[in-house]
Amino acid sequence: MTQPISNRDLSAYLDGEISPAERLLVELNLAKDPQLRASLDGLRELDNLLRSELIPPRLDVEHLLSQMARPENEVKEQRFELGTKRQHRSMFYFGLASALAVSLLLTLGNWERLLQRGTQSETLPSSIAEIVRSFGSIEFRTQPGGPWEVWTSATLVPLEAGVSIRTPSDSLCEIITQQAGTLRLNRGTELVLHRPDEVELRRGELWCETGDSPLIVRGTKRLEATRNDSNQVQFTCPQNVRVQCRIESDVLRLGCVSETPLTVLLSDQQELAISPGEWVACSFSVPQTVTGQFDQVDETAWQLPLLMQRSAGDSELHDFLFVLLARLGQSKMQYLYEERIRELGPPGALPLIAFVQSEKSRTNPETRQRAMRIVADLAPESTRPDLTRLSYDSDAVVAGYANQAIARLDQDIPKQKM
């Protein structure tokens, strides 16, 4: 009978930090337990991620950011005014997380940025929406059954009522509506804009910020027998919320990606409240509604190539990258030895600080305190504003480690001046 193997044992096995006898024990368990082998594969993937994504001290973050900056001759994006402002976190996180995002983008392939807004273009009066960002080629047609045309930034296309838009398998796009709403189309998506407050999803996946008015999202499933007939379901979403919709097999699924709960109106006019990270699905063929949970980061990560086109001070991009960084910090604390994290030096502390500042970390105070103990020894000078905020944390242990880190940085300042 073999002894149970923990994630810590697997991590040591992966790093070659165990004795031959311990290695044999692990391999015996791996041979018999498929779930354990899957855990080892997960750790190996995480290890590869850390090696490829963590930023070494010599990395020039400013240089990376300058490469991401818009060309000087590119004018400020023209779009319907959005009257929303969010509090920005420290620019330190944007610098680090942007470099992380650059690496993530490279894994998605070499994207060609098509959107270069013309200096004289203006939204036409008859337009109910406009395309403001894209990756790859975007297709549209103005009449049902008409030919599909390729959208380019060189020619302004007024998106009038009834226009159809679709993204091929390698393309994404973002649309702003007349009601200050935002629509983002994932790869392989087809959408019909009926009105600024009503859209029809025919295939694929759609992220929505509803803007100043409620938004009706209709899903259509075409029947195999006759092309003209179709089954439809719909959700009516309240104003100023964020949702993500997807057609899956026989259902239209809607997930709440807002920070607070929302109430949607179903096809039968029934109201349903859903919380962040919860989805509801309505069937096309039978009167059936089901709900479930999803991971918001995993579900919305496809938008990163579009978000990376935003300016350095954009709050949505900033918040999204902060969440990615916090997720990385959480994974480090779950799967790696403390010694390995410390070997990474100051860069190893950066995801940990993001994790400690995230709300999710408060559900595991022990791990949160352990992360701050490492931060106290490793945090670089650039994290001082974040450490100052953490010095007022409600957890006295976390606050104590933050003050300890600040005291260490204060002692280092004279050394740096010598």
Description:
The chain is of the alpha+beta class. It has helices spanning 7-15, 20-32, 34-53, 61-68, 91-107, 296-300, 304-307, 315-335, 338-343, 346-357, 365-378, 384-390, 396-417; strands at 129-135, 138-141, 149-151, 163-167, 172-177, 182-185, 189-195, 198-203, 205-209, 215-222, 230-237, 242-248, 251-256, 262-265, 271-274, 278-283, 289-293. It folds into three domains: 1-53; 67-111 and 311-418, no CATH class; 129-303, Sandwich (Jelly Rolls). Helices cover 38% and strands 23% of the residues. The radius of gyration is 25 Å and the shape is globular.
CATH class of the largest domain equals Mainly Beta
Number of beta strands: 17
Strand fraction band? 15-25%
Structural class of the secondary elements? alpha+beta
Order of helices and strands: HHHHHEEEEEEEEEEEEEEEEEHHHHHHHH
Seen as an oligomer or otherwise, the chain set is: single chain
Overall CATH architecture of the largest domain: Sandwich
- The strand line-up of the biggest sheet is 1-5-6-9-12-13-16-17
Report the CATH topology name of the largest domain. Jelly Rolls
Largest β sheet strand count, sense and barrel closure? 8 strands, antiparallel
Flag low-confidence runs: 52-99, 101-125, 224-229
Helix content: 25-40%
Mean pLDDT: 76
Rg over alpha carbons: 25 Å
Distance between the termini: 61 Å
Number of domains: 3
Anisotropy-based shape: globular
Topology:
Layout: H1 7-15, H2 20-32, H3 34-53, H4 61-68, H5 91-107, E1 129-135, E2 138-141, E3 149-151, E4 163-167, E5 172-177, E6 182-185, E7 189-195, E8 198-203, E9 205-209, E10 215-222, E11 230-237, E12 242-248, E13 251-256, E14 262-265, E15 271-274, E16 278-283, E17 289-293, H6 296-300, H7 304-307, H8 315-335, H9 338-343, H10 346-357, H11 365-378, H12 384-390, H13 396-417
